[in-house]
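ugh ok fine here u go
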Amino acid sequence: MTLNKQAPGKQAFARLSLGVCAGALALLAFAHCGKNPIEATKGGGGSEAVALVGAFEYPDHRPAIAASVRLRPRLFLSDTAGAGATAPLPGSVSGGTIIDAVTDNTGAFRMDSVKRGDYFLEIKDSASRGLLIPCTLTGDSSEVKLASAALQPTGSVTGSIVAPEGFAGRTYVQVYGLDRQVKTDSATGKFNLGDLPQGTYTLRAVYSAPAVDPREIDSVNSVSDSSTDIGAVRLASFENENYAAWPQSRLIYINTTASGANVAGNVADFPLLVRLDKNNFDFSQSRGLGRDIRFADAKGKRLRYEVERWDSAGSVAELWVRLDRVNGNSNSQFITMHWGLAGAEDLTDSRQVFGADAGYAGVWHLNEDAPDTLSADLYKDAVGYDPAADRVASANRDGVIAHGASFNGSDYITVPVANPLLQPIAMVTVSAWMRAARTASLGGTLLSMGDTYNLRVNPGGTGRFSYYDGTTVRGVETPASVNLLDSAWHQLAATFGDGVMSIYVDGKFSAKVGVKDAFDYRFWPAFVIGRHGNRKPGYDFYGNLDQVEVSGDVSRSADWIKLTFENERIGSKLTELRP
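structure:
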């Protein structure tokens, strides 16, 4: 098996996040239920593991006997056995539990030693009847029991994958979270994924030639006893594109001198923010959603990018470009933006910009919105691993980069932690943009990894970063002269590593303390934005947040922190578009 951790887009299913599972039918969780006689036939354990038990039936209430029960991590991809492009993105992380079981003569099953995380539970019998249950296991309960659910006839998904010209190979279609993949027809590119339980899936089309980029197809619905045709999906080869064919181009200069960002040192592997508006870009020349946008450095190297927002009607866009290096104290460095090629495929990919190989553990742009407060996986993690669940009622969308999220004291965003990089041992860097005028009684939490580390604004307006070492909560605070509660946007950042814990305000060093201990993760493991990570009252956030970032096992440099602030702030002087 290959655990491939390229992440799919937002899943369109409801999912509970307190150690339970959810699906098309209501499922309930109970702690410490009686032992079920069915054991998993194979599986693995780990720390803070739980038992998962349940029973299934048919609509006429007969027990679903001898049905297969397969548990896979939400980002699991089956091995295509030879397709070169199945390797994960550089630095991708792995984890989770793989278990297969079979229901007994009462329709019941049991899986022991399941690590916490996000999963798909697939139940299927020999007569093509099944059930899909997306699960989030937090470890709050030692045992999670599912309410009885009924198997329904499965469905199928069909379509075709069109490979780029000039390549010889085979195309495979995989399903995230299921141990399932099919080859496309060598002549027509058509495929048929049969026996899919009703639900919403993300598919991945992957070509056997590594130079051809995989492509993901989000929100694909399998309907019971029906077939869904997704039509034709085209693949492209990013590394083989010829930018000379793009009719439009413009230079983007990067200024780190005193007249620009004023950063003296070089910064490696950096995500550069490019802002477009009606004053520096003609949106009528580009395809909708920025599908045709491309970037290259001064030597012509193609640069990976992400489109965070593209609003042609409003003539505004924000894009991120991954650079090998930003030169310090320089105003001669430039990259080239290309656009205007008809038929160019959309190759935006946040994981190629905020990659785990660059040290990122989680990046939430908070650019999404929903009409309710219960949308699972609404806020996309740009690293591609941990989408965050919506618990925000406020309709205010103000942000520093495109949109942000507003919190009214009872709002919060929760991330069921599956990414081990969010739980580093000896190093971490955190940052977030905030705008607030007050806090709750004890402060306002920007971000919190359980009760282990958190970034907060105090009631008096100072900033604080603290961590738990297993015995004591230790922290560093900004001087009393700092006031973050002035209703203006501020970036608060902190680093931990190499015996020092430091805090920064608006890109500038503010304070530090010496440390000698590592993190201790014995408390509730969820990562939470906008309130205390262990649900303690009095630390709720009031105001707006944007661009929440965590780098795991990395203590970023002072130049990195300053460049990040200067890059992202409103009115930045770091970049300039020239003809």
